[in-house]
Amino acid sequence: MKQNQNYLLSHSVALIGLMGAGKSTLGRYFARSLSIDFKDSDDEIVKRAGISIPDIFELSGEEKFRDIEQRVIEDILQGSPVILSTGGGAFIVPKTRNILSNKSVTIWLRAEPETLLSRMDNLHNRPLLAKGDPLLTLTNLSNERKRYYEQADVIIDTDNLPAAHALRELVSALKDRNVLKLEKSVQKEL
Ligand code: S3P
C-alpha cells in the first residue's frame, strides 16, 4: 500500500510586502513543495501588457500600471485557490487591497530595508528604484506603506530567516487557520 499526501488550499494565499521581501521566491518554493498552483501578478501584468514593467511605467505611467495590476489580481483571485505573489505596491491601492483582503489570506513578508536591498539582484527591473539612493527609497516606502501592510492576516518577520524556516512559518500559519489541509489518499500498489 502506498500513501499519497495532497495538500489542499481552501482559499488563495497572497504574499504582500516591499520589493525584495522574497514574495516570488517563497511563493514558488511553497507552491513547488506542496504541488499547489502559483501566480506572480507582475509576470501576469507583463503577459497582459506585452511590455516590461519599466516600459509600462515609462510609456503609460504608474496609474495605468496600478489599473492593470488591480484587474490582473482580481482575475487571478476569481479562479480556484492559488498562491499569489503580488507587486510591492498592490496592497497600498485601496481597491486592490480590498480585493486581496476579501478574496485571499494575506501574508506580509516583513524585512528591514537593508535586508530587502541585499536580497535584490536586479534593480533595473524596478522603476521605483531606478532613480536616487535605493536604500533611502526603500526606507521611505517602508515608512509610508507599513500601516497598510500591517493589515495583513499574517505577518512573517523574514530578517535573518532562511527560506526553509519562512516556509515552515507560512505552512503552520495556514494550517492553524484551516486554510491548508492535508488530504490523504491510500492507493494500492500495482
Ligand atoms: C512595485 C513593486 C514591483 C512592481 C513594480 C512596483 C512597488 O514588484 O510591481 O515595480 O510599488 O513596490 P516587486 O515587489 O515584486 O518587486
Q: Could you characterize the architecture of this molecule?
A:
The chain is an alpha/beta fold and 190 residues long. It contains eight helices and seven strands; from the N terminus they run ββαβαααβαβααβαβ. The strands form two sheets. It has a five-stranded parallel sheet with strand order 3-4-2-5-6, with helices on both faces. A two-stranded antiparallel ribbon has the order 1-7. The longest helix is centred in the middle third of the chain and has 17 residues, at 62-78. The radius of gyration is 17 Å and the shape is globular. The mean pLDDT is 93. The structure holds shikimate-3-phosphate.
Give the key terms.
single chain; two-stranded antiparallel sheet; 8 helices; alpha/beta; binds shikimate-3-phosphate
The fraction of residues assigned to DSSP E strands is: 15-25%
Total of DSSP H or I helical runs spanning 4+ residues? 8
Q: What structural class do you assign from the helix and strand content?
A: alpha/beta
* Computed Rg: 17 Å
Number of distinct beta strands: 7
Helix content: 40-55%
Coarse morphology: globular
Cross-sheet strand order for the largest sheet: 3-4-2-5-6
Mean pLDDT: 93
Q: Major sheet, described briefly?
A: 5 strands, parallel
Bound heterogens, unique: shikimate-3-phosphate
Low-confidence region ranges: none
Distance between the termini: 9 Å
The secondary-structure element order is EEHEHHHEHEHHEHE
